[in-house]
Amino acid sequence: MTCCVCNMEWNELPCDEWTESHVSSWLKSIGVKDKYILKLNEEEVTGPVLMRLQREYLHDTIEMKGGQIELLLSNCNDLLKTRPQKLKAGSSTQRDTRNVESSAASTQESKYKVERTSETSESGPISTSENEQTSDGASSSLSNFRGFDEHDKDFRYVKHRVLPPETGIENMIVPCHEYKSLEIAHKLEPLKLRVKVASEVIRFACGCMNMRTNGTIHFGVMDKSKGIYKHGEIIGIPVENHSDFVDALDYIENCFKELDHHSDARKCIRNPTFIEVIDKGNSGGNWIIEFDVVPKARVVKDKLYSVTIPKFSEKTNKVIYEEKAPYHRVGANTPRIPGEDLVHFIQGLKEKDLQREEAESSTNQTPTDSREDLGRKLSILLTCGKKYMDDTLSFIIVTNKFQEEHLKTINFLVHMKIFCVFDFDPDSKTSGLCGQYREHHAANLHFLHDYATDPHLSTTDFKQRLQLFDRTSWIFCNGRNDYHGSEDPCDGKTWIRTKKKQLKKTVSVICNEILPKGSFVVLFLLMSQVEQPLVDTFHEFYAEMNGHDDFAIISESKDNYKKWSSLAQASCDLESLEQISIVGMPMSHVDATIQSIQLSNKQLTRRLPVFNKGLCFLKTIDEDTMLSLDIVSADQCDETNLDVMGNDQVSNIEKYFYQGGKISWMHLWLAEKVKCEEVIQRDAYKETTKILEGILQGDTTKRSIQSVNICHQPGSGGSTVAHQILWNCRTKLRCAVVKQSYYIQTVCQHSVHLREYEEKDKNSCLPVLLLLDDCNAEYIDELRRELGNAIATMKINASALCFILLICKRCHNPEKMSRNSQTIPVTHELSKQEKILFKKKRQELMFEPESILAFVLMSEGFQKSYIEGFVKNLLEDIDHSSLTTRLIRFVALLNCHVQNSYISVSHCEASLGLGIQIDRFRYHTFVNSLSEQARLVFIQLRESTTHISSIKMHPLIAREILEQLSAIQPQSSITKDLLLDKVLMDHRFGRDEFLKFIRDLLIRRNKISRGDPNDSSFSPLIEHVCREKPDGLQKATELLEAAYTCFGKDAFVAQQLARLLYTNKRFTEAQHWAEEAKVRCPHDTFILDTEGQVYKKWFYEQHDALGTAGKPPEEVCEIIGIALKGIAAFRASEKAPKSETVSLNSSYFGEVDVGCRLLQLISSVNVFSTKDGKSELMRYLLTDYIPEAVSKPWKKFHGQLKGMQKSIEKALECISEDLSYFRTDISEEEEELDTREPEQVNNPRKWLTRKSAVYAGFFCNVVSHVDSPMSDCTEDVMVTPFKKQMKIYELGGGNVTTILSLLSDHKTWRCGKKLEEIIAMYPENPKMKELDQTDLVNYIFSQIALACAIPGSPKLVALTKLQDLSIRFYREGSKSASAFFLLSILFWPEDNEPSSAKNQKVFMSAIEDLQRLRRLKMKPKKSRTVTHFFLGKARGLNRIVHRSAIEKHIKGNLTERRLKWLGGEVWNTAEVVQMLKRVEGWTENEHLFVQGTTKGSKIRVIPLYSASLPNANENVTFYLGFSFDGVVAFDIKVQEV
Q1: What's the mean pLDDT when you consider all of the chain?
Q2: Which CA distances in Å does 482 have to 33, 450, 474, 1297?
Q3: What beta strand segments (E) does 1315-1439 contain?
Q4: How many CB atoms lie within 10 A of CB 176?
């Protein structure tokens, strides 16, 4: 509360805003005693609390006396009289104030109000005004009476509801009513309570009997307005002993003196009825006690009744009786009949008797039958007012136990689009609805706790985990009897204690995070006796959905409904419940009625084409198991009931497409049935069809997996072409669209199932045409690989066509990407024929051009002049200050820079301040609030699965809008507005997707490989803002700073900010943000690497600024310090735990870059720049010697600088080892975070070769300036071998990767000459002890590489010589993977040549060590193992064939060559068959072996694709490869006999 409010007096503020001090002042002003004021202050009684004080609380807690309580409550009542007017005025003001932020937050506020109301009503009574605010209107606070003279055990009253006013006589049959609160009397001791009840009942009964009228007296209902209570308000009283009220009737005999009179009274006065008072479904232990009086004419005729009313005397402590007197009903009271009126009253009794008899006679007549049209009512409830049910609505079913006969009438449920079922039947799976439903559809079985969302799990991931929207989620709300886990059913009380909170959470998640309001209907099926948990579910949905819209209740049993309504009325009044309820309609009638309005009476089987040109049935239950595929059946949409579908629906489907929405199967079906205009087929359709026909007829290379690519510019109709291809192939191929949210292994499994479905011969199946729309290259490669493995596993003929991948991807320049013969470009430019077709179609369509902008743009060929003119006219009279224009800017910004982005309608409503739209025409409300310009450019999308409505804009229109607005509001300003818009950023529904678009807007870089126009260093938006004038860089920096805050201090935003700053040479700020990112993610490889990059660029900048002149050591201290900080950061990144997404640790690259540049800097210092200085530098870097000139200035650096040579060499070796293991393809996740230079990413082997030469060249250059052999013997030893080592590095022989990279040179003589130079640097006849292990590894690799390049070179040594040299690795226990790899190659046994047991032991040990090291090394998720060598047919060293020798014989571009490797075509190439040797082996227990060199020995070989192994134990042949994983097998074939 603000300070100014605290300083105001209580009489200057409404009581709702009073603090404790205001309340104390007011209490003092009305005369409440100080001790009570002090206690109330201590209890923190503020204004709102004051309005809710109860008598019990004041008496028991504050210990106030009765007089003080009456004083306080009466004054509170006076305060309340003025409160409604103040509230009304306040609400009016609030409606007039159109504050965007508060309006958008209305959803949260409404939810809070509901929760607060619930809490308040549970703890005590609420005020009238608040009760009305949280109800459905003024009438919702009223309550109905229990049926007169009926004993309805299911009837309940709701606390704080108000009964109609007390009444007098109406027609003698309609009962009169009298209320007694007993708010104080119920605490009396039993005798006094019985007397009190007896006196009231007997007085009331006597009056009713004398008036010959029915009547009910109610105890526990306020008989007057008092304090916060209203007259007639249901409060209820606690009843300790029911007999106190029953025994009160024992006073009848003493009060009715005449014998026949007390007999009559017994007949007329019914025993008390105890009705429970509920409060939001919770039993508060309070009751209403009602006595019905039924004076039948035959009992009371001709009689006047007088009674003596009992009273309890405090003096005598006994029951005494008043004088005998007759009573009658006057209005709502029961007074004595005055003596002077008694004669007149007696004279009128005959007339009253006659009236009573007539009234009883008329009520005994059969009432007229007024039937409700339940069929129409049911239709309206389930279609939201449409003529039919379709897939635009999902259903949530809430049900209890189905009876056996009802399970035969659930066809309507089978045809519904059911999102989830809340099932309270523990036996539902075995003998109930769940088991019956699962005979037709797959369903995932869940419990309530499964919906307890992990706070670290996004909504998208949560939906994927539970497979929501793909299968019906069947939630067992009260356990399962057949389940072996700990989910047993429980009773009502235990359920409330253990599961009610889980239910509340589940309903909240579904309503607020998963399903948009207005997209679903909650259908309650009351199939058996109603229990409280079922009603609690209604309360929760009612609260979350803000009322009773989008509810339907079906109950065949009227008794079940009675109990249901009596409990459910705590949330929704009985009248509203009746409006949404279908009661008494047999379930068989319900079933037939609903099926008659279902647009798609989906058959339980659909049809698929089969190999023999016929058709087979696809059962729905089987289709549901292939949920990763959207299967297009041969009879797709044929089940549609055209008689139900109206012309408006057809028009809407067609218009949706021409506005820019995705084409639907329904649209293509309607066009095929000539129910709407035909869809234009672009030229690309014919070209793609031609390629497909060629594949099917075998015109192309025979592969089991073929692919056809459609590259299209955004908005050019490429996706439509792909869908048209699938549609027209559905009768001759099995067709499906791949859902990319599923794991590739799952998609593969389902694709194989679809291919084999109802086919007997796996080699004779129709191909499956799979559409992959906007998939990244990694996903496609992985899927192709998995499908290939599956084909190999099933032993399908390699030439049999199994799958055709129809790949549809966006790209900026389709023609450039379409060099492959099986790639079709789709551009914005129309051919001559297409222009004619589009012009004709534009004339045929019955829509206004403005309403189908996307089609008009395409028909105009997306001409820039047309777009410019359109946008200019659009913006001419636009109101730039309006909320709608602001929304246009936001949508344009996203659609210009982020592919496939959109803003949900829910976000738009929040942005426009529309608040909650709970009616069934929500989207129309939104559209009507838009400006004319917004309606022109916005494209409405509706996700077919989740029903999330969203808004987007054509990207070319979006770009032009931003361009023309740039003079008024640049993109930096629009982006900042968006980031600072709390309403949009914090909006709960669809938040994950929205925030992802914002992140992509700021972080996602352009990549040509993804179809973008260029490769960018930052996101296109950030690069655009950097170019803005003036101070573009500062604006970009401020944007990322704002994003950092908006995303909760996100480390990766800070990383991007650091990158932006160091790229633009603002190194101090970049250092700050890199450190900030490191604080947030201290162990992330990319974050730590970015810190190293900051220092690297900073060091480069300062080094370049030094110039060429030599500097003294003192002047370069700061620069050296920066470089060493960079190296330290890179090393920290190298040591950080690696995730599966990291394909290669880029920090080694950074360390080498900085190290090499730092060596260059040190060599330029004046101390070391002379001829003598070079010698000094060598001694300084490679020994313990420290020159005097640098001793003091570089004191802090000596240790690090002296380790430079070894650290660079180690980093180069680590890079080499990674590249030796894996073919590293960078993943999309890495692309946004990677800080490497293009060469390091695209050709790391080339970079390694170059950097190795730079590193070695430095030391070679320094050594060459040193005078030949120094006098110091140790120094001479140090120089000469080191010089040779550096020369080897410079030539490319320093590590395994650079040596093998030499073989990629197409001119083998050049490669061979370099290898001979490398070998010449080693001793002519190297002895075992002359070389260390690393040098020996490199020497042997150079020999093997030379044998591959120039088999007859004189520098080569025999295989046996290399074996003798390499056996040292085995003897000395080498730890190098490269050494073990060499042993596996050199000691592979020759055919028909004896091999010693020792050699076999060496070989087997090497294989085991390779596999052990491989298990220790994490394999990046997207990387493939590299096979370096293959076993050839030659002998000796010449039997080792490098991969490059095979690559030379594979024709085609890069993509085609990759496909030949993946498809196994390489092994059928004649040159390869001639070159490589097929090894004989056998399979045993799913493992592959070859014969060892000793008797009984065997060598295990790893199949590259485990799926290619035969299922049985077979003799096989295969090609053998050598990798760092061990020996691997390719092209495994069962050996022919």
Answers
A1: 83
A2: 66, 18, 15, 60
A3: 1424-1425, 1427-1431
A4: 24
Q: By three-state DSSP, how is residue 11 classified?
A: helix
Look at residue 845 and tell me whether its pLDDT is greater than 80. no
The lowest-confidence range among 350-354, 381-385, 496-500, 617-621 is: 381-385
Among the listed residues 200, 185, 305, the one whose alpha carbon sits nearest the alpha carbon of residue 248 = 200
Task: Report helix, strand or coil for 62.
Answer: coil
Q: Which residues of 1000-1017 are buried (b: 16+ CB within 10 A; e: fewer)?
A: bbbbbbbbeebbbeeeee
What's the whole-model pTM score?
0.72
* Residue 163, helix vs strand vs coil: coil
What's CA 1339's distance to the chain center, in Å? 55
On the question of a cis peptide bond just before residue 1030, with omega within 30 degrees of 0, the verdict is: yes
> How far does CA 884 lie from the centroid of its chain?
28
555 sits in which H/E element: strand 551-555
Distance CA 515, CA 989 (A): 9
Extract the tokens encoding 1398.
């020792």
- DSSP annotation of 1270 reads -
Distance CA(467)–CA(750), nearest Å, equals 15
Q: Which amino acid is at 336?
A: R
Task: Determine the distance from the C-alpha atom of residue 825 to the mean position of all C-alpha atoms in its chain, rounded to a whole number.
Answer: 34
Q: Which residues contact 1463 (CB under 8 A, 6 or more apart)?
A: 703, 704, 705, 788
Task: Specify the DSSP class assigned to residue 321.
Answer: E
Q: Which of 1294, 1272, 1273, 1278 is nearest to 1215 (CA)?
A: 1294
Please, what's the largest Cα pairwise distance for the chain? 152
Give the span between the Cα atoms of 920 and 1065, in whole angstroms.
56
CA pair distance 1099, 1094, nearest whole angstrom: 8
pLDDT digits (tens, 9 = 90+) for 138-194: 334 788 898 898 888 888 888 888 999 888 888 889 999 999 999 888 889 999 999
pLDDT in tens, 946-996: 556 788 888 889 999 999 998 889 999 999 999 998 888 888 788 888 999
Q: Which candidate, 536, 522, 528, 510, places its Cα nearest to that of 581?
A: 522
1359: left (phi over 0), alpha (psi -120 to 50) or beta: alpha
Tokens of 140: 């919702």
Q: In angstroms, rounded to a whole number, what is the distance separating the alpha carbons of residues 826 and 818? A: 10
Vertex 1158: Cα angle to 1153 and 1164 (nearest 5): 135
Token readout for 448 is 């309530």
CA-CA distances (angstroms) from residue 829 to 387, 441, 861?
42, 46, 5
